[in-house]
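Q: Convert this sequence to structure tokens.
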Amino acid sequence: MQTRQEGQDKQYKKFMSQALVEAQLALDDGEFPVGCVLVLDGDIIGRGHRHNSEGDCGNELDHAEVVTLRGLLAQKPSVDCKGITAYSTMEPCLMCYATMLLSGIRRFVWAYEDIMGGGTSLPLNAVAPLYEEMRVELVPGILRQESLALFYQFFQKYSYWQDSLLEQYTVEQFNKTSHGK
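A:
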């Protein structure tokens, strides 16, 4: 018999695998491999990945979570985001986290920790008094190794965030977990 926790973990992995599909699409396009899916009542209602990491349109606005939420709201402007769970291959940065919080999303599941700018590590009341009473669920580390492998591949090929703390940490983590070091 499956426990509630096992069932929840299975669901987390199911949807995170879809976020990983989006991250692979980003990587295939030479983009930073962050993928996101938005899930409501057991169905994926939005999906997307990072755009414009580098190049002529390079920016720090087209993060996977913002792209995905923007796409969902363009298709379904009246959707009630309160029941949505956001699955992301990397911990949402402060911009993405605050954007989703303000939109009503209260459950966040991610694979790989963002040691340079993960927004979920800040106490909500430190961000703004508005957030102080919010009840938010944070679920880190779901399919972390699979996500880590994508980030490692990215840093082996592309210059975005090269020589950053995140790149160094990613290589270290990949070597430690993949080679038993």
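The CA atoms of residues 52 and 58 lie 5 Å apart.
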